Amino acid sequence: MHDQHEANRKRWNAASASYAAMGDRHGNWRKVVTEPGWAFLPEELAILGDVTGQRACVLGSGDNLAVFALAGMGAEVTSVDISEAQIEVARGRAETLGLNVRFLRADVMEIDELASDRYDLVHTSRHIANWVSDLRAFYRQAVRILKPGGLFLVTEYHPLRRVFKNGPKRLEVESSYLDRGPFHTKVSEELFDLEAGELEQFEYKWTIADFYAAMTEPGCTLVALDEIGDEAEDWEASHFGGLPQVLLMAARKNGS
Questions:
Q1: What distance in Å separates the CA atoms of residue 231 and residue 228, rounded to the nearest whole number?
Q2: Cα(187)–Cα(218) distance, rounded to whole angstroms?
Q3: Closest C-alpha to 108, from 88, 136, 149
Q4: Which residues of the chain have pLDDT under 50?
């Protein structure tokens, strides 16, 4: 495993308890099975359509909201995440919800265990690409496991928002839009504790051009590209309002 990915794995294992506690407070993981709008934007649901009986794989599954939503919509779902602690939380929740989900602990760049040309849908959603050191290698794997004609659906936190500091007063550029990183920080075990700690994490900042190239070069044709929302999120400073919030891209794997 990539050394920086290993550091991120340890970071997410440590943060898993606080992340799970937040999920329990909100309860969205219980709602998404019958109300997929808690996991997907309306634009995503329109692209997904009827997934009944489809094989779906969620890469970088994190809180597994997308996994549980797709399972509730009738898909056969595989959930992949680098953190074994995150996977164990999700496995317990799936049992509580009565969902039959396949869980795989793996780096999204190292999913050789998953067969090529198997899935009708591969999905990865917000705040996933920033943890991956090689976006093209990540998306090559995503496309590899897709069936010809299969759908690759990506929604990511908009790259422009990653340029600015999340400070309280005004927009202030933190790094160039063209600086991909890695950005190294020291953090504590608590996910929402902003004080420095002993754990390391490494993040990356990809441009819209990076996302487009990574998605299309392995053999996909783009079918949707959108920038959605301009509100500040709850955890962001209010001055983020007015900036595009979400980058949505959807592509079909070439062939039939």
A1: 10
A2: 35
A3: 136
A4: none
Q: Which of 142, 183, 158 is nearest to 60 (CA)?
A: 142
Helix (H, G, I), strand (E, B) or coil at 39: coil
Identify the CATH number of the domain in which residue 245 sits.
Answer: 3.40.50.150
H or E element at residue 203: strand 199-203
Q: What is the pLDDT of residues 170-202, one digit of tens each?
A: 888 999 999 999 999 999 887 766 677 889 999
H or E element: which one contains 19?
A: helix 3-26
Taking a C-beta distance cutoff of 8 angstroms, is the pair 182, 206 a contact?
no
Strands 199-203 and 146-157: unpaired
Domain count along the chain: 1
Domain that holds residue 207: 3-253
Tokens at 104, concatenated: 């795989």
Q: Report which secondary-structure segment, H or E, holds 187.
A: strand 183-187
Through-space distance between the first and last CA atoms of the chain, rounded to whole angstroms: 34
User: Which pTM was predicted?
Assistant: 0.95
Tokens coding 142 = 């995503």
Give the pLDDT confidence score for residue 210 in this predicted structure: 98
